[in-house]
Design a protein that fits this description.
The complex is a heterodimer. By secondary structure, chain A is mainly beta. Chain A has a single domain, classed as Ubiquitin-like (UB roll) (Roll). Chain A is built from one helix and seven strands. In chain A, strands 2-1-7-5-6 form a five-stranded mixed sheet, covered by helices on one side. The termini of chain A are far apart. By secondary structure, chain B is α/β, with parallel strands linked by helices. Chain B has three domains: about 190 residues, FAD/NAD(P)-binding domain (3-Layer(bba) Sandwich); about 140 residues, FAD/NAD(P)-binding domain, CATH 3.50.50; about 80 residues, no CATH class. In chain B, about 35% of the residues lie in helices and about 25% in strands. In chain B, β12 and β13 form a beta hairpin. Classes of the chains: A mainly beta, B alpha/beta. Bound molecules: flavin-adenine dinucleotide (FAD) and FE2/S2 (inorganic) cluster. The site of FE2/S2 (inorganic) cluster (FES) has 13 residues of chain A, from loops.
């Protein structure tokens, strides 16, 4: 699997295996990804790019679907 | 200049991979497109790049694909057909058009989700979704999981969770035992499937597999803490921090509908060579009937031979396909949803997760179209992919309509569209 990848989720450092999706990292951090219009916390749900519940801010870009995105070294993920 | 291929294949699951490989091996110029970071589709997700990992089938097909000369584009989603025989593809920050002579659509299936109180809590996810997250590196050791819903996938998911260190507190299949017994007899006629089933059962031995049971409620603070399970007579609670819940699969029909392919009873209608009602479009895999890996591979190969003009090779494969189609029908009957599931949501339970529309609000409408206008259901980021199949089952509504784009377009995509209009 090679060297682990280090990234941060809401400022907290997290190490994941190479090839891990950002949504999987959010799940492992037990973070919620997004807040719904009525204020509910939501987490990654469908795992296949359709529900858009996994949207989060990645490297400053808001509203990125994260389940089809792979973790990169130094990535900064900010969730709801 | 717009790149141009003899054949474009949309979707790089087993069906799309087989189609693209056979067509490219026959000497056609082929381009295979998928919205994931790598080819593989739902079942071979994440197994494609790491040679050595994954099943024998996956390795064999990925090697053949790589050697076939097929062009593979990943991270790109087909969103529309802006001009005849041209597709618009969108990536994270790119837009690209591609022209095709023939198009093979292999967009697979997604899970059917039903809404129940608490299904929006973080920690609740689809069953296939849990499997997809596991394949994408999700580590679950120390988690206590419940698997529920319907379909053979539940066993695979439970086995997957367990092999990655989760404790599986229970597997709850809504179908009654009698209905499944009949399906088990069909399984006996499919040696490959049977073997798979036995393997799953062996792993599932470590968790109770209960039929005729379903999750009626999920509860917790910021994350899932427990679920309530019912067998129709009695209810009980189970503590857990992961619920994997999905009710069978439904084909991803958006692209075939957008292209104008005929759809009957929720499936794309194809002829013996996998050709749809549109002469230049073929459809394979889950789109023509949810039937799993072998069916998708066979149909992919048949489509590949059809576009290569070798009708004889296509017809030869047709014989094995007939058995697979029987299996697909058996699946649909065995795991048919019980009517009690229609009363899962309470009035305040959300059906639309994007726009937060409740079941009660939907009950006041008389059709999907009216509900969209009045409540914004299906107008959010998922464009009805999650709530549409839930509403279809809960309220008996259909949602077949064609409306480009297939997915929410990025700003870049919109810009390209506007530029076109202004031209
Ligand atoms: C979430 C999930 C998990 C599953 N897990 C398993 C499992 O663990 N074991 C098992 O036996 N079966 C599993 N299945 C069943 C599996 O889907 C089928 O058995 C088989 O993979 C079907 O092959 P296919 O080629 O028809 O479609 P798929 O494998 O579904 O492939 C379709 C591909 O097309 C892509 N796609 C869809 N729309 C577009 C578009 N507009 N543009 C570009 N690309 C697009 C999809 O992202 C996907 O990669 C799962 C299904 C789902 C929905
Ligand atoms: S988890 Fe559904 S789109 Fe990412």
């Amino acid at each position: 699997m090679g060297e682990p990848i280090s990234l941060t989720i809401n400022g907290q450092p997290l190490q994941v295996k190479k090839g891990t999706s950002v949504a999987a990292a959010i799940l492992m951090a037990r973070a919620a990804s997004r807040i719904s219009p009525s204020g509910e916390l939501r987490g990654p749900f469908c795992g296949m790019g359709i529900c858009m519940e996994c949207r989060a801010t990645v490297n400053g870009m808001a509203q990125q679907p994260t389940c089809q995105m792979i973790c990169e070294p130094g990535m900064e993920v900010v969730t709801a | 200049m717009t790149p141009n291929f003899d054949v474009v294949v949309a979707g790089a699951g087993p069906g799309g991979i087989a189609a693209a490989t056979v067509a490219a091996e026959a000497g056609l110029r082929v381009c295979l497109v998928d919205d994931n970071p790598a080819a593989g589709g739902q079942i071979w997700r994440g197994q494609a790049d790491s040679a050595g990992a994954g099943s024998r089938d996956a390795r064999k097909w990925m090697q053949r694909l790589n050697a076939s000369g097929c062009t593979v584009w990943t991270g790109l989603r087909v969103v529309s057909e802006p001009a005849a025989q041209m597709l618009r593809l969108e990536g994270q920050d790119t837009v690209r058009d591609v022209a095709f002579g023939r198009l093979i659509v292999a967009t697979g299936a997604r899970e059917r989700f039903l809404s129940f109180p608490g299904w929006t809590l973080p920690g609740v996810m689809g069953a296939g979704a849990a499997q997809a997250f596991l394949k994408a590196g999700f580590e679950v050791s120390g988690r206590r999981a419940v698997v529920s819903g319907s379909g053979p996938l539940l066993l695979a998911v439970a086995a997957g969770l367990r092999s990655k260190g989760a404790r599986v507190a229970g597997i709850f299949e809504q179908a009654p035992a009698a209905q499944l017994a009949q399906f088990a007899r069909t399984l006996a006629r499919h040696p490959g499937k049977l073997l798979e089933g036995v393997q799953y059962q062996w792993q599932a031995r470590f968790a109770p597999y209960r039929t005729g049971c379903w999750v009626v409620k999920a509860e917790g603070g910021e994350q899932l803490e427990r679920v309530t399970v019912s067998n129709g007579r009695r209810q009980w609670r189970i503590d857990c921090d992961l619920l994997a819940c999905g009710y069978n699969l439904v084909p991803n029909l958006e692209l075939p509908l957008l292209l104008g392919c005929r759809v009957e009873q929720g499936l794309v209608h194809v002829d013996e060579g996998q050709q749809s009602s549109r002469a230049d479009v073929l459809c394979v895999g889950e789109l023509t009937g949810v039937g799993g890996l072998e069916k998708a591979l066979l149909e992919g190969e048949i489509a590949g031979w059809t576009v290569a003009g070798d009708r004889a090779r296509a017809a030869a494969l047709r014989v094995s396909l007939r058995r697979q189609n029987g299996f697909a029908q058996g699946l649909a009957q065995a795991f048919a949803l019980r009517p009690e599931l229609r009363s899962l949501p309470a009035a305040e339970t959300l059906v639309c997760r994007c726009e937060d529309v409740s079941y009660g609000a939907l009950c006041q409408q008389d059709s999907w179209r009216a509900a969209k206008l009045q409540t914004r259901v299906g107008m959010g980021a998922c464009q009805g992919r999650v709530c549409g199949s839930a509403a279809a089952f809960l309220l008996g509504w259909e949602k077949h309509e064609k409306r480009p784009p297939v997915f929410p377009t990025t700003v870049a995509g919109m810009a390209a569209e506007i530029a076109e209009i202004e031209k």
